């Protein structure tokens, strides 16, 4: 009887809290981060390092978790071009209308872009809308 009591005590005092802590750590590492109408400084705290956005970006909306990263924000064209060039992201003039934003997690924007650029980023793609001076991109570690 005493041995059973010691085993139960060990399970309740040592094992149960350890399991609870493990669940909390795993959940926090998965729990996604999101923000709307915020600043680049806030977004860059959680955006993947290789996808940080310029300080001049405004009206930032983002979603980040361990498998994906999406952002949409206002940025002048000159700064967008500088961003792409500084990171060796290829960008191409839009010659035919393309969808503005086809996100996985954020709310979709169904407008079409007729003037601007499409661009490639690590593990994803994006678009710059010249008429609205807005950028949107997504990246995913899933195939």
In brief:
The chain is α+β, with helices and mostly antiparallel strands and 143 residues long. The chain contains three helices and nine strands, in the order H-E-H-E-E-H-E-E-E-E-E-E.
Task: Give a written overview of the molecule.
The relative contact order is 0.15. 31% of the residues lie in helices and 36% in strands. The strands form 2 sheets. The protein has a 7-stranded antiparallel beta sheet. With 143 residues, it is of the alpha+beta class. It contains 3 helices and 9 strands, in the order H-E-H-E-E-H-E-E-E-E-E-E.
Layout: helices, strands, pairs:
Layout: H1 2-30, E1 33-38, H2 40-44, E2 58-64, E3 68-74, H3 77-86, E4 91-93, E5 98-101, E6 109-113, E7 116-121, E8 124-129, E9 134-140
Keywords:
single chain, 143 residues, alpha+beta, 7-stranded antiparallel beta sheet, two-stranded antiparallel sheet, 36% strand
Flag low-confidence runs.
none
Helix/strand-derived category reads alpha+beta
Number of helices: 3
- Main beta-sheet annotation: 7 strands, antiparallel
Principal-axes shape call: elongated
The SSE order reads HEHEEHEEEEEE
Oligomeric state as shown: single chain
- Annotation, overall tally of beta strands: 9
Radius of gyration computed on alpha carbons? 22 Å
Give helix % range. Answer: 25-40%
Which sequence of strands runs across the widest sheet? 1-2-3-9-8-7-4
**For the terminal residues, how far apart are their CA atoms?**
56 Å
Provide mean pLDDT, rounded: 85
Percent of residues in β-strands? 35-45%
């Amino acid at each position: 009887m005493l041995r059973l009591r010691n085993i139960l005590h060990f399970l309740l005092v040592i094992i149960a809290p350890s399991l609870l802590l493990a669940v909390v750590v795993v959940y926090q590492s998965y729990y996604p981060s999101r923000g709307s109408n915020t600043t680049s400084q806030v977004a860059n705290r959680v955006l993947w390092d290789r996808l940080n956005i310029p300080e001049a970006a405004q009206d930032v909306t983002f979603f980040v978790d361990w498998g994906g990263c999406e952002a949409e924000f206002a940025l002048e064209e000159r700064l967008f071009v500088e961003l792409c060039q500084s990171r060796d992201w290829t960008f191409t003039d839009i010659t035919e209308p393309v969808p503005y934003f086809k996100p996985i997690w954020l709310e979709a924007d169904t407008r079409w872009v007729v003037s601007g650029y499409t661009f490639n980023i690590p593990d994803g793609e994006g678009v710059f809308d010249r008429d609205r001076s807005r950028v949107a991109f997504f990246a995913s570690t899933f195939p």
